[in-house]
Specification:
Elements: E1 2-8, E2 12-19, E3 22-30, E4 40-49, E5 54-60, E6 63-68, E7 79-86, E8 95-104, E9 111-114, H1 118-126, E10 133-137, H2 141-150, E11 158-161, H3 168-178, E12 181-183, E13 189-194, E14 199-204, H4 213-233, E15 238-243, H5 252-263, E16 272-276, E17 281-286, H6 293-296, E18 298-300, E19 308-310, H7 312-329, E20 335-339, H8 341-349, E21 357-361, E22 371-374
Helix pairs in contact: 1-2, 4-5, 7-8
The structure holds zinc ion.
Zinc ion is lined by residues 301, 303-304, 307, 309.
Length: 375
């Protein structure tokens, strides 16, 4: 049973993929945003860098992208049609791929040709042929229309759902994807830390476990499986380095690589798995198109320089989802919602699109605190 949950709310468009009830992928984009992936531009070649085997392409909007040269005779000043295949990140422009018939005779000013709406971007990223059901919260019409246009086989799977993201189990599973730690069945844990050039993954043994050989190997095996799931669900790409627990004897590297290979076989990010180094580190890479989920659902923290916190738009959308659920639960009752001030301020901007409730801004609440109930 594979189920896709979709909702275009006042603050965000959300998509969640559930396999047999387990959340295996999630994404949210701010409502009204222009997602990078899939944008198309008419660009002008600004500079060909033979050493990089790539060209810098002006896209207009004071933006330059990098277009790898596939032996094409690109020259400075030429006009090319391109698509964004990786978001700009850390001061680097977007990575581009050529569109068919990419070199256009004549010179035209750089311009954006097309950009997917958040609804379309999520549907394209999440829709797969093995889906059994698509539950859509709110208005199903835009999703149906998109499905008919791009994925006609999936259109009959769409069903309306009143509040697909109000379920506390789903909310808990989504928050778990944003936490740096993954609990392992034996009591150990896998800790993921996003550094600038790579994601560092550390494996900890359960505090209560004896440092026995079998406990160590079992924890490593669990960590390898958890990592395979986390990479996909949290959309972690680029280089990952895993510090597995030290195992005595030989064969640990091959065993762990085998587990990772098996568990990532159908990952669209196509991970490549290196070998265990002399110091017990395993390197792997996964296709990177965007920063990880936890980063994308965050915003710069106004209180700690360089720090990030959960984004207001995302928390407001979560509050809207919960409010719809509570309004069903307490029909006819007046509701009160308490949340941090910036989240409440956002909610107030869309009060006409939400069930009626009294909003209470509570400074000093935890960032993710939210309480809703009858007055
Ligand atoms: Zn902070």
């Amino acid at each position: 049973m594979t189920r896709l949950l979709l909702q275009a709310g006042p603050f965000a468009v959300q998509a969640a993929w559930l396999s047999d009830g387990e959340l295996t992928a999630y994404d949210a984009l701010p409502a009204g945003s222009l997602p990078w992936l899939g944008r198309r531009y008419l660009g002008r070649v600004a500079q060909v860098e033979a050493a990089l085997r790539a060209a810098f392409v002006e896209l207009g909007e004071a933006l330059q992208g990098l277009l790898p040269l596939a032996g094409a005779g690109l020259k400075e000043g030429m006009t090319v049609a391109v698509e964004v295949v990786r978001e700009p990140e850390a001061g680097k422009g977007p990575l581009l791929a050529p569109l068919p018939d990419r070199v256009i005779a004549g010179r035209a000013a750089p311009a954006r040709l097309a950009a997917p709406e958040p609804v379309e971007a999520l549907l394209r990223a999440f829709a797969r042929s093995d889906l059994t059901e698509i539950l859509v919260g709110g208005d199903t019409a835009p999703w149906r229309a998109l499905c008919r246009r791009h994925l006609p086989d999936l259109a009959p799977l769409i069903r309306p759902s009143e509040a697909p993201f109000a379920d506390s189990a789903i909310e808990e599973a989504i928050f778990a994807l944003l936490a740096p730690e993954v609990a392992l069945p034996s009591g150990g844990r896998l800790v993921l830390e996003h550094a600038r050039a790579m994601t560092v993954c550390d494996v900890d043994l359960a505090a209560a476990a004896r440092q026995g050989r079998s406990a160590v190997a079992a924890t490593n095996d669990e960590a390898a499986l958890a990592l395979a799931r986390a990479m996909r669900a949290r959309d972690i790409g680029g280089l990952l380095v895993v510090d597995f627990l030290k195992e005595r004897g030989r064969g640990a590297g091959e065993r762990l690589r085998g587990i990772l290979r098996g568990a990532t076989a159908d990952d669209p990010g196509q991970p490549r798995i290196g070998s265990l180094s002399a110091f017990g580190l395993l390197e792997l890479t996964r296709r990177r198109q965007r920063p990880p989920l936890a980063w994308r659902l965050g915003e710069p923290c106004p209180h700690c320089p360089g720090g990030r916190r959960l984004a207001g738009w995302w928390l407001a959308e979560r509050a809207a989802a919960r409010l719809r659920g509570e309004a069903r639960h307490w029909p006819g009752r007046a509701l009160t919602l308490s949340a941090p001030p910036d989240v409440v301020a956002l909610l107030a901007t869309a009060a006409d699109r939400l069930p009626a409730c009294e909003l209470r801004a509570e400074p000093g609440l935890a960032r993710d605190a939210l309480s809703i109930g009858p007055r």
